[in-house]
Design a protein that fits this description.
binds magnesium ion; Rossmann fold
C-alpha cells in the first residue's frame, strides 16, 4: 500500500535536476505540477520558470503542465513557453496524466512527472504508471491550509534519501 506514495526519485528542487541527462536516458515528455514546483503557490510565472521551460524545449522535450488549478493559472504558464497544459486535473486522478501523454504523443516508457506533493502528484503518477520525481515545495510558507494538512499526513510516509546510482546493490553482505 505504501508503494503508492513512494516517489521513484527525489530532488530538493526541480531546478537541481539534470534534464539533459534525463533526455539522454530516453525521456521525451515531461509533466510538471506548477504550484510550489515551478513557482511558489499562486505566484505568477517568473523569469526562472520561463527560461527553464524554454530550455527544456531546446533540449528536445515536450512539456505539459498539469494543475488542479483553473484555466487562467495554466494558460499564464503556457503563454510564451510553448508548454501544453491540462487544467482542473483532479490529481490524483489518472486521467490528467493520460491526457498529458496523449497531448505529447508519449507513453509511460518515455514520460517523466515532477511534482511537490505525495498525496496528489506522486500518488497520481504512480496510479498512471508514470515515472516520477518528488521535489521539495519551493516555498512551504505559501502552502494553503489544505496543503499543510496534507503535508502533515505525508510525513507518515518516510521520504526516501536522494536517488542513488542504479548500481547500488541490495544484496546482504556475507
Ligand atoms: Mg504543487
Amino acid at each position: 500500500m505504501m508503494r503508492w506514495f513512494r516517489p521513484d526519485r527525489y530532488f530538493s528542487s526541480v531546478y537541481d535536476i539534470d534534464f539533459e541527462a534525463e533526455y539522454g536516458t530516453g525521456f521525451r515528455g515531461l509533466i510538471f505540477d506548477i504550484d510550489n514546483t515551478l513557482v511558489p503557490q499562486n505566484a505568477p510565472i517568473d523569469d526562472r520558470a520561463r527560461d527553464f521551460l524554454k530550455d527544456l524545449h531546446r533540449i528536445g522535450f515536450q512539456v505539459t503542465l498539469v494543475s488542479n488549478n483553473g484555466i487562467e493559472r495554466v494558460e499564464e504558464f503556457s503563454r510564451g513557453t510553448d508548454a501544453l497544459w491540462v487544467h482542473n486535473a483532479a490529481k490524483p486522478s489518472r486521467k490528467a496524466y493520460r491526457r498529458a501523454m496523449s497531448l505529447m504523443h508519449t507513453d509511460t516508457e518515455n514520460t517523466l512527472f515532477i511534482g511537490d506533493q505525495v498525496l496528489t502528484d506522486i500518488f497520481g503518477a504512480r496510479r498512471a504508471h508514470v515515472p516520477n520525481i518528488l521535489v521539495d515545495p519551493l516555498d512551504p510558507e505559501t502552502d494553503t491550509k489544505l496543503i499543510r494538512f496534507k503535508r502533515a499526513l505525508e510525513k507518515l510516509f518516510h521520504r526516501p534519501p536522494k536517488s542513488r546510482p542504479k548500481k547500488a546493490s541490495f544484496r546482504k553482505k556475507a
